[in-house]
Amino acid sequence: MTDLILSKEEGARRGRYVARLAGIDAEAEITFRHQGAGIISADHTGVPATMSGHGVAKALLNYMLEDARRAGFRIIPICPFVRSQYAKHPEWADLFTTKPGEDP
Helix H segments across the chain? Predict the structure, then answer.
């Protein structure tokens, strides 16, 4: 999937991880909110039908996880997709938390 472009857009309180595929006039996203020092909540994953079947949601999640490791923050998995993927990958436990200031 060499034509997949991943990026992060971040404001003071909210942000999103964005995926774009060459030749498709749409974008997928994982939205997040800052929940305190060193913690974000992954709130929603959205992938338009035109991008479905390309592994975009998983690529976005991996991008977010790499960002968390690099920047040293933890994630509250509110989004059902993120929560279900986390349940399948206990090795990600160091990147997740249930509430600001709490361990999972």
Answer: 56-71, 80-88
DSSP structure string for 47-59: --GGGTTSSHHHH
84, with CB counted inside 10 A (0-12, 13-18, 19+), is: exposed
How many Å apart are CA 41 and CA 61, to the nearest integer?
Answer: 13
Q: 19, exposed or middle or buried, with CB in 10 Å at 0-12, 13-18, 19+?
A: buried
32 φ/ψ angles, rounded to the nearest 5 degrees: -145, 160
pLDDT digits (tens, 9 = 90+) for 3-47: 999 999 999 999 999 999 988 899 999 999 999 889 999 999 999
Q: Which fold has domain 4-95?
A: Aminopeptidase (3.40.630)
